[in-house]
Amino acid sequence: xxxxxxxxxxxxxxxxxxxxRHDVDLVKLLLPANSIPRRIARWWRRxxxxxxxxxxxxxxxxSDTAIKREMSRQLTYYPGTIHPLxxxxxxxECLMIVTFATAFHMIPYDVTFLYRIGDYYPFTAFxxxxxGIDCICLADVVISLYTGTxxxxxxxxxxxLKRVRKQYLRMWFWIDIISSAPDPLLTKLIPPSTxxxxxxxxxxxxxxxPGCLWDLWSLLSVMKIFRFRTFLRYTRRFCQRFxxxxxxxKFIAMLAxxxxxxxxxxxxxxxxxxxxxxxxxxxxxQRSWSQKILFWxxxxxxxxxxxxxxxxxxxxHITHDFNESMTYDDMVMSLIYTISGYILKIYLLAELxxxxxxxxxxxxxxxxxxxxxSNYMRHEQLPAALQKQVLSFYDFRHPKIYSRWTLIRSVxxxxxxxxxxxxxxxxxxxxxxxxxxxxxxxxxxxxxLGMSFQxxxxxxxxARWEGGGDAAGAGTSDVRNWNMVFIVNGTVxxxxxxxxxxxxxxxxxxxxxxxxxxxxxxxxFPNLVAVENTELxxxxxxxxxxxxxxxxxxxxxxxxxxxxxxxxMEQMQRGTVLDTLANVxxxxxxxxxxxxxx
Length: 598
What we know:
Helix content is 56%, strand content 7%. The chain is α+β, with helices and mostly antiparallel strands and 598 residues long. The protein has a four-stranded antiparallel beta sheet with strand order 3-10-5-8. A hairpin with a 5-residue loop joins strand 6 and strand 7. Helix 10 packs across helix 13. The longest helix has 32 residues. The protein starts with 25 loop residues before the first helix and ends in a 15-residue tail after the last helix.
C-alpha cells in the first residue's frame, strides 16, 4: 500500500524512502462497517482485541509483527473471544481491583461484627454496597467464560474457549458462584425472629435447627479470599501498564497483603470470641478481655476498633501485660498472633533489607571498594601522600556511586551504548573540522565507541613527547602511541618540547588531530599537562589506523584534507595562523601579553 503525501526519511538509512505502510488497521481491513450497528459491533471487537499499546503486550509479543499476527489469529479463528490483554479486559480488571479490595474488607466485617437484628433491618447502605459487589462478581463470572487466559509463567495466551471453560469449571467457577451469591437479598427474605438463631450462635450453643442456616451464604462468601492472588495479579498488571518500577510494585503488593491479613486477623479474633464465649455479656467468662472494658454495649465499629488494637499490639508485640487474666481461647489466640507477628517481622525486615540494598547498591559498592583500596594501600605501606592522591582520584572518578560501564555495555548492546556515547561525544567529534567533513554519522558513532575515557588529577602529565634528535626514526614509537584528546571537564595546558607553555584547552575543546595522521618530521608533538582535575576522552593513533584499514578512500580523503589545512597554515604568518586555528575551533589560543615569551 502506498503512502500519501511526502515521504519521511529514515533516521538510520537516510537514502531509503519507505513506500509501505506498517500501521495497517486490521480491524478496518477485515471487518468492513457500512452502518451504525456494524460500526458499534466493530468498535466492540476492537475493544476485545489485543491492546498493542499495553506494556504487558509488548513484554509478551516483543514486536509489532507478532502483535498483528495475534490480532489476525483472534479475528480469524476466535472472533467471539475476549483477549486477556485487550483494552476492555484492562478496564474490567481496574473495576475488579476496586471490587476485590472492597470485598476483602467488607465481607469479613459483615460476617463477624454484624450479627444483631438492628444491623440487618432496615436495609442499610452497607448492604447495598455488598449487593453491588455480588452483582459485579457475577458479571465477572460471565465475562470469564468468554475471556482467554494468559499464563505469566510461560507467557502463553490461550484463546480456545472450550479449553478455557473446561479449566475454569473445574474449580474457580464454583468458588466464584458460591462466594458471589447475593446474600443481602436472601437476608431480606428471612423473618426477623429467625435472625437471633444464626449459624455462629448455633455453633456456640451446640443447638442446631433449620433456622441456623439462614446466614450460610453469608459465611460462604468469605471464600472470595481465595481470589486474593487474582487481585494481586490485576494490581501488578495495572502498575506495569503505567510503567512503575518493580520495587514499587512489590511494595504495593506487600502493603495490600499486610493490610488484608491484619483486617482478617481482627475479624478472626472477634469470631473466636463469639464461638467460644457467645455474645451474651452475662454468660461470658469474667477472665475474658472483653469483660475488662465497655465492649458489648458499643457499636459494631467501636468493637472493631477494640479488636484491631488488640490484634495490633499482640502481633507487633508493642506491649503485653503478662499479669492479665485470660481465658484459654485468649491464650491460644495470643500465642498464635505473637508467633505470626515474629514471622511477619522477619519477612518484612528481609524484604526491607533487599529493597535498601537494591536502592543504594551503587553507593554501597562505592564505599566497599574504597575501603578495600584503603586496606590494600595500608598493607603495602605506601606513602601517606600517595594514599591521599589515590583516594582523591577514586573519589573524583566515582562520586559517591560506583558503576561498571563494561556491564552496562554488555546489557544494552552496541547500538544503544553507541547512542549513549554519542550524547556525550557527538558534539566533541563534530567540533573537529577534519572528522566532521570526512566521516559519516555511523562512522562517528564507531569512533565514539573506540575512544577511551581518562581521568587526570592536577599536574598529571597526559602526553609527553620524548622523540627528536638527529638519529633517523627517533621518536617513532612515541608517534604510534599518540592520542588525540577531547576535553569533557577541566583544563589542559600545552607545552613545547622545551616545556614552554603555549596555550590552554578547556571544556569542549580538542587537540591532536594532525598528530594522528602525520609523523614528527611534518608536525610538532607537544607535551600535555592537566592544569586541574580533568575528564577527557582519547582517540589513539593505532586504533584509528586499524579503523581506517577497510576504508582506504576515507583514509586518503582525511589525509588530503589535513594536508590542505597544513599547506594553508604554512603560507600564513604566525599571528594569522593563531587566528585561523581559533576560527575553525581546533584550539583556543591564548597569546602571551609580553612579546618576549617567544
